[in-house]
Write a structure and sequence with these properties.
4802_t:CDS:1
Length: 577
């Protein structure tokens, strides 16, 4: 079979791809598409890279819909037709079932489709050519023998409105009445579908466009190659079927989709430019953790009862005491007859028996606190309400924990927890990653305002995120390196072992927690630096600096609001706006 993707990228429509690969089994088709995409001879131009991402996105969804297609076939055509009619009345569902119906044609009716174009004498190549030539006559809700009776194609994408630009940073909550209007494209060609309904997510993207148009191109992150990071993200993101971190101009170092948009050199520049050094712990703290890293319970019992300093001073030795306390707390679990992590536990159990003992006490000597219990983020609330009226107060995004300055609204990090660890591709992990990244962006935007937008300070700001599922722990660090981009770096995942051993020492997790504490303190120092005043100049009557707010030299765009079409899924996934 020839490589379909050697054709120009404008031919890479969902229908034509399905027709070309209609002889592959449903189990192999996505793998074959990925293989051919990878082996395409030239994939350097922007249009081809963008088209590649769209194809991959479409066919990832297709793999899931094939399962639904099989169910619908077994359930009966009557139910399928009923769902088809209902889906046409609900625009967010329509696109899903348009694809599903075409996949029914592809999957369950594949043999009938082939027989429609086969007269016994044609070769397989000729059959494929005939299908491709007639693909515009495919109707999503027709069987193969009805194809020639219908000249419509409801799977055709509506014409994009070139006047609607699409950023991710604007602050809005509900689509306004003025935005609930049909596409400005009133004319369509013979082979295109006129669609007068715009889904809520498409309305969100209209505002996304508007926000992008308000970004100053001269302030964008221009790479050495000459490309603008924000522009690349915008062109890719506005065509995605759902929300990602990129809609909020957040670049995540674990995001393979984001990485694929850039060359190796560009990605290296993005992930390493203005990179901050990871905090280095005091030698005495490292030595104490090494001392406690043993594989014998009795030996550890003896070591933790020994004095860890000659004369204890809480200001000087608080972290030493915390390390000692952490090992003493975990000793109760390690002494159990059975490994406590063999059986599944509730999220609250892990909070009470592990993370409440390892994370929270580390911050007890600070002038900021870890507010737990689905605490609302003030930074998120401030962003949502910056254009509020008296009667429409909105609550901020809720996390399992928020690091907040005592007696203030400033926030420096957040935590998200789960009862189990599904790996980095698990639904809970992906949902929490998006949720916590958006919270962190709100926080770093809030801190940038607190720094009066002074670029030399804002570029040094960092906030932290902590993801922990079951007994796994991962630290995230967000900064604001250049342009309008927020950058997230993922640290290695560490495990709190259910048995005392040297292969998975508790010291790894404790080090990450103490470094998160150090990063928050560094950021707090940046905020305090802004408040340093030259008293002599301030008291000089001829100087007016003390009587006006200095102009902001750097601005942080607002976080993308979760589209309303996700509300049901948000409730299921416990992913609030």
């Amino acid at each position: 079979m020839s490589n379909f993707f050697e054709l120009p990228s404008e031919h890479w429509t969902f229908e034509k791809i399905a027709a070309h690969y209609c002889f592959e089994s449903e189990a192999r088709v996505f793998d074959r598409i990925k293989k051919d995409l990878t082996s395409r001879s030239n994939m350097k131009d922007d249009s081809a890279l963008l088209a590649k991402q769209l194809v991959t996105s479409d066919w990832k969804l297709a793999g899931k819909l094939l399962v639904a297609a099989e169910f619908l076939q077994n359930t009966g055509e009557t139910i399928f037709m009923l769902i088809s009619v209902v889906s046409l009345m609900i625009s967010p569902v329509a696109n899903l079932f348009n694809k599903l119906s075409f996949l029914l044609l592809y999957n369950t009716q594949r043999e009938a489709t082939i027989s429609t174009y086969t007269d016994g004498a044609k070769s397989m190549a000729k059959v494929r050519t005939d299908i491709l030539n007639n693909i515009d006559h495919v109707s999503s809700f027709k069987r193969p023998h009805d194809l020639e009776k219908d000249d419509t194609n409801p799977r055709k994408r509506p014409i994009q409105n070139p006047s609607a630009s699409a950023s991710s940073a604007i602050d809005y909550d509900e689509p306004s009445a003025s935005d609930n209007r049909p596409s400005s494209s009133s004319e369509v060609g013979d082979d295109e579908l006129s669609d007068n309904e715009i889904s809520p997510f498409e309305l969100d993207l209209v505002k996304f466009d508007k926000a992008y148009s308000e970004l100053d191109p001269n302030c964008m992150w221009i790479l050495k190659s000459g490309r603008k990071v924000e522009e690349v993200i915008y062109k890719f993101t506005r065509n995605l079927p759902g929300e990602t971190c990129l809609h909020s101009f957040i670049i995540n170092d674990a995001d393979t989709d984001a990485e694929s948009l850039f060359s190796t050199e560009e990605w290296d520049e993005i992930t390493n430019l203005e990179s901050k050094d990871f905090p280095n712990l005091e030698r005495s703290l490292k030595d104490l953790m090494k001392k406690y890293t043993v594989d014998n319970i009795k030996q550890l019992q003896k070591l933790i009862l020994e004095p860890f300093v000659d004369e204890y001073d809480n200001e000087l030795h608080f972290d030493h005491n915390y390390i000692n306390y952490a090992y003493r707390s975990m000793l109760f679990l390690w002494q159990k007859a059975q490994n406590p992590f063999i059986d599944s536990k509730l999220e609250g159990w892990y909070q009470m028996n592990i993370w409440g003992l390892l994370i929270d006490p580390a911050f007890d000597n600070q002038n900021f606190e870890l507010a737990r219990g689905e605490s609302m983020s003030f930074a998120s609330s401030d962003r949502k309400n910056h254009k509020r009226t008296i009667n429409d107060r909105k609550i901020g995004r809720k996390g399992d924990g928020v690091f907040r300055l005592s007696g203030d609204r400033l926030e420096f990090g957040a935590t998200e927890a789960g009862r189990k660890w599904e790996g980095k591709s698990g639904t809970k992990y992906l949902n929490d990653s998006l949720k916590i990244n958006k919270m962190l962006k709100d926080m770093i935007g809030q801190l940038a305002v607190a720094c009066d937008g002074k670029e030399d300070l804002v570029r040094k700001l960092q906030v932290v995120g902590i993801l922990h599922g079951a007994n796994r722990f991962q630290l995230l660090i967000m900064d604001y390196p250049k342009g309008y981009i927020s950058r997230v770096k993922h640290r290695k995942v560490h495990t709190v072992a259910g048995r005392l051993n040297k292969s998975e020492p508790l010291a790894y997790t404790l080090k990450e927690i103490l470094c998160a504490k150090a990063i928050i303190n560094q950021t707090l120092d940046m905020i305090n630096t802004k408040n340093n005043v030259n008293l002599e100049n301030f008291l000089d009557d001829s100087d007016e600096e003390g009587y006006r707010t200095p102009p902001r030299t750097v601005a942080t765009p607002k976080t993308f609001i979760t589209p309303k079409t996700k509300r049901t899924l948000d409730v299921i996934n416990n992913d609030s706006e």
